Amino acid sequence: MPTTTSRRGLLFGAAALSGGALLAGCTSNESKDEDSGNKEQQVADEKPGKEVTIGFAGPQADHGWLNAINDNAKERAKKYADVTLESTEGSNDTAAQIGQVETLINKKVDVLVILPADGKALTQVGLKAMKAGIPVVNLDRVFASPQAYRCWIGGDNYGMGLSAGHYIGEKLKDKKNARVVELAGLDNLELTKQRSKGFDDALKNYPNIKKVARQAADFTVESGQQKMSQLLQAQKNFDALWNHDDDQGVGALRAIEQAGRDDFLMVGGAGALSAFQAIEADDGVLKATVLYPPTMAASAIDLARALGQGKGVSGMAEFEIPSFVTCYSAVVDKDNVEQYMPTGFK
């Protein structure tokens, strides 16, 4: 699944560099022959245009990826002289976040960007904003109704598993009776099920490979270490490991080092800076990670700004921004890690 560096690809491919890709660097704020009434497409650019106030309601930063979401949104907004960002205190409490969004509605912001603590629980306040004439950019955790948002942008959990499976598959395609194990995330989350399904579907293309074990962790360093230790004790011989999350991967790597194991390759997930650094050093089992890019928050700000200015997206024929943008789960290994290093989250 090749990545692309075309203008359109920078918007729709995952994890374009936060410094200048996606909508901002690839578009123009001026329509052609605008004064003459020409109806040619107007698209958003970094050049100052109509002033837009964007309300941002993000999560509590209790995880490296979630902290990066908040940082990406705030840093992106600073790039635009015509954007004012009204940011709430991050919260994972649904009632508190609903109240925060209602406050932003009452302030009559031009556009809302919301990563809901619970998509279903915040659907009604999304609907309220839309009915009030405030377009909503729904970030990652989707609302229960498409009427609650104008545009959704988020990651591809199934695609993460697919990319990880194909990467491992290609590395092991010539090995007879190859064995792989999986360190998943929280099993009660739909995203975990999607990641596992994508991984399993990819492995179907490699009949020489068998998944021999799977453990579910909790997206924490501690759970990653504990569950990886159990996997290592139960499986004395395997050729590859896919770990769903780079944060829990820190713990998994500790367990691997403590066990003195270096007889397999490991693929991570999400795109943490620590994972990138380990891949670049190339002195351990971690050889790649598949992205679930927090840069999607920067892209959400781009989309919100375009909505507030009534602009479209460069590289597309339509006059409006799309209603659904799924980021691509690119594989980062030693061949391209330098490119992605600036996007790594702590």
Which features would summarize this protein structure in a list?
346 residues, alpha/beta, 2 domains, Rossmann fold, 12 helices, six-stranded mixed beta sheet
Describe the structure.
The chain is an alpha/beta fold. It has two domains: 182 residues, Response regulator (Rossmann fold, 3-Layer(aba) Sandwich); 135 residues, Rossmann fold (3-Layer(aba) Sandwich). 38% of the residues lie in helices and 17% in strands. The chain is built from twelve helices and twelve strands. The strands form two sheets. A six-stranded parallel sheet has the order 2-1-3-4-5-11, sandwiched between helices. Helix 5 links the parallel strand 3 and strand 4. The chain is elongated and about 60 Å long. The two termini are 27 Å apart. InterPro entries: Peripla_BP_I (IPR028082), SBP_2_dom (IPR025997), TAT_signal (IPR006311).
Q: What oligomeric state do these chains adopt? A: single chain
**DSSP E strands, number:** 12
Which structural class fits the helix and strand makeup? alpha/beta
Uncertain runs:
1-39
What share of residues is helical?
A: 25-40%
What percent strand? 15-25%
Give the CA-based shape.
elongated
CATH class of the largest domain: Alpha Beta
End-to-end distance? 27 Å
The CATH architecture of the largest domain comes to 3-Layer(aba) Sandwich
Note the total helix count.
12
What's the story with the biggest beta sheet? 6 strands, parallel
Strand order of the largest sheet: 2-1-3-4-5-11
Instruction: Give average pLDDT, whole number.
Output: 88
The CATH topology assignment of the largest domain is: Rossmann fold
Q: Calculate Rg over CA atoms.
A: 21 Å
Give the full name of the CATH homologous superfamily of the largest domain: Response regulator
Number of domains: 2
Order of helices and strands: HHEHEHEHEEHEHEHEHEHEHEEH
